[in-house]
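User: Some background: our group keeps a shared notebook of sequences we're curious about, and every so often someone picks one and asks for a predicted structure to add to the entry. Today it's my turn. The entry only has the sequence so far, pasted here. Could you supply the structure so I can complete it?
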Amino acid sequence: MKILDRYILITFLRTFFSVFIIFMFIFVLQGVWLYISELAGKDLDISVTAKFILYYIPKLIPLVVPLTILLSSIMVFGNFAENYEFAAMKSTGISLQRAMRSLSVFIVALGIACFFFANNVIPWGEYNFYNLRRNIAKVKPALAIAEGQFNEIGNINIKVDKKSGDRGQYLEGVVMHQKSSTRPGNYKVIVSEKGELVSTTDSNILQLKLINGNYYEEIVNRDARKNENKPHARSYFDTYNINIDLEILNSEDFDERNYTNRHNMFNISQLNQTIDSLQTARTKDQKSLSTTLYSRTTYGALNVNIDTTKTDSIYKGDILDLFRANNKVQIVNLAINSASSTIQILDSNKKNFEAKEIWLNKHIISLHDKFVLAFACVILFFVGAPLGALIRKGGIGLPMVIAIVLFLTYHFFGIFAKNSAEKGSFSPVVGAWLSTAVMLPLSIYLTTRATNDKGVFQFDAILVPLKRAFTPKNKLELSESETKSYNYYKRYSVEELVNVIKQQGEFDLDKKPKEIALHNLLNRNISLESLEDEGLDVDPRLIKGKRLLKDYKDYSKTSLVSFIVGGALIGLHFIFKNNKLPSLADASINLSIIAFIFFAIYVVVDAYVYSNFYKSIGQKDKRINPILLILSLPLYPLKYIILRNKIAHDFYQSCIQNIK
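Assistant: Of course. Here's the predicted structure to add to the notebook entry:
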């Protein structure tokens, strides 16, 4: 390894590990704050808390490592550019790609390491973290009950609207599902207005006291025919006590591992196996549903005793007309009932298929995320490194802002894409790769720009024509010496400026003094008639042209106001219509029609005055084309700005040529 490569690599590694430790510390604190309700007040050992943090850290790597690479590359390469180290490298023939060579090897190796980390360590951390959280939640049930969500405590699943009291022992709005030891499922539901958790220090029994409520229990009989009547028991109570054995709950083994079926706990081989099983099960469910629906139609048994080779060529009417009235009613009712039951089956299976589809998509996304992390490390490096070289700013200020903005864009694209892909809006493969695919063109673009020593963005081809179109064109373009002359002429009186114009000979090559003097006079709002009185030769056409110019500006401004008012009234029409205010909607559309009539009238007047103006200054060829006039009506505000600047510029040029 050469000295330059070693220097760049060591500089990057120092920044990388510093930023990594800072970000990891911040995200760990954020995670502890997020799960503080599960840790506080549980009398947990230091070892259990340390395990909690240890198992939480691996899931932060997909966030911390890409962000660290992005920020570190911007900081390091921005610092090189700011201190002219890149300029020194380029002066010796070392290009940006050559300077990035050692880091590129390191980043590729880091991406491969992140892939193996995502495949092995992150599933291990998710597996242990999830089980540890469940075990911690069972230590003190009073603290495990969170407001507004169901919480599992022993054999009950409880939700409360509000907790109060110094220990959170008073409950309001209690909804509870009590499990049975003999059969799976929630067959007993208890609802009460209030509740209280009662316990003593010398007892291992936690008593849940419910006040003013009722319970409903579904009774399931072994004889399926008796279940058709849906037997159940329902009762109301003033107080209802449930005892929970704390000895069982508080003797939790924090190292117990009971839950292993989550998609983020699997490696690639396990995910492939699970995805294959889920796809096979989905195919079987679809075939089973199609078979069930086909069997319910009894289509296969319709032609058992019917000879389909013979047809009746005489009867062409409705087949129901062959039956009596009471039979017709029976047939129609049977068809309606069959269709209704089929729709119910489809609706119930639709939710089931949607849930299974979401579960399958989560596994597919989890599989591709392991590869995405590796590619994201490489792509974000090729975003950050050239960007740092282009902005030429090191340190922690601007690079931090740019890195966070880019990473948030990358991260939010990933979140939105994955959430949509889970619900089946598009392929889960696209959802997993979309954020990285968005960053790939940016990395290629920035690397190309930095290699060719160009800026981040080049908008001159767009901005310069727009600037010329919207900037008034009657301004002088002066050099530094001419600017001094212009400022000096500002002190001249009207007579002195007139003398400068008179002294300008017909064959003088330098017309700038005359232009500067005339520009000063016109900026003082001196009328052309007054200039004529001062002894200047003013073409009479200019006096008429100035009057027409003022008329055009007034009429065009009126046209613009009419256009804006008409458009605003149309917008109000749709707003009132959507809010079911028909009278206001009708009034708005009528007023908008009136506004557009005024607009059309003044547009015609504009065009007439515009043509007369150019005729008065001797430029008849610049009349408005009627076809272009009609086509430009939807873009009238843009046309107003362009023509206003153009007509003022042409009048100014005509004054320079025709005032002597």
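Suggested note for the entry: The chain is about 65% helix and 10% strand. Residues 82 and 550 are 54 Å apart (CA to CA).
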